[in-house]
Amino acid sequence: GNSVTQMEGPVTLSEEAFLTINCTYTATGYPSLFWYVQYPGEGLQLLLKATKADDKGSNKGFEATYRKETTSFHLEKGSVQVSDSAVYFCALNTGTSYGKLTFGQGTILTVHP
Amino acid sequence: DADVTQTPRNRITKTGKRIMLECSQTKGHDRMYWYRQDPGLGLRLIYYSFDVKDINKGEISDGYSVSRQAQAKFSLSLESAIPNQTALYFCATSDSSGGSSYGYTFGSGTRLTVV
User: Fold this and answer.
1) In this structure, are residues A92 and A1 in contact, taking their beta carbons and an 8 Å threshold?
2) Cα-based distances in Å from A4 to A47, B2, B56, B67
3) Measuring CA to CA, which of A113, B47, B65, B73 is 20 to 30 A from B59?
């Protein structure tokens, strides 16, 4: 079956530090890959996505590249801000599962001034 | 108004009580989902519906039921609430025309506490 594994958290960084949150997946078919962000007290919002191998999704300074050979979709940002503090979820959708997203367990990011 | 609205935002209920969580959407999407979120476990799918007459169990449906009253409304019920159903519940929608590349739109969640 499909599964998503994210790096263990929580992750604590100082402002302007470089961020990487690892995500690897197992899937049948050819999945689309997503990163969602959940700010405190809010629902999940789509951050970025990639729909085929070697695609790079990007948004708000975050980016992630779909690596089929390593089945990975790591999230990166060159310089984090306090406002980036949130929970980040990696997810996949193969389409063969009727549009159901499979989520990783989430990674809590805290950025200090 | 939000695209996906969940009510109530917070609820405390007693063990054994029946409770309903409601979700409505203005996105015009055909697919709707209920997830629960627990710390360290991510989001787990409870039920999903691809249209008004198509409702399916997710991975953790025991103890829950749903009703799709209209394309825009999808309610989740706990017939007899128990403390381990204390969690954050999310409703989400998606559009089948987008295929696997289409993400979800989430509501803001309902925080349910069963005492």
Assistant:
1) no
2) 17, 29, 22, 29
3) B73
The answer to whether B48 contacts A100, with C-beta atoms less than 8 Å apart, is yes
How many whole angstroms separate alpha carbon A100 and alpha carbon B7? 23
How far apart CA B30 and CA A47 sit, in angstroms, is 22
Residues in chain B within 8 Å Cβ distance of A103: 42-43
List chain A residues with CB under 8 Å of B106.
Answer: 36, 43-45
- Spatial neighbors of A80 by CB under 8 A, at least 6 apart, are A13, A15, A16, A17, A18, A19, A109, A111
CA distance B105 to B35: 12
The tens-digit pLDDT sequence of chain A (113 residues) is 889 999 878 999 999 999 999 999 998 878 899 999 999 888 899 999 998 899 999 999 999 999 999 999 999 999 999 999 999 999 998 765 556 788 999 999 999 99
A87 forms beta bridges with A38, A108
Partner residue opposite A43 with nearest CB, options B42, B48, B106: B106
Residues in A touching B96 (Cβ below 8 Å): 99
Alpha carbon distance A38, A60 (integer Å): 14
Cβ B43–A99 below 8 Å, yes or no? no
**What are the CB-based long-range contacts (under 8 Å, 24+) for B49-55?**
B49/B74, B50/A98, B50/A99, B50/B96
Cβ distance A93 to B106 less than 8 Å, yes or no, reads no
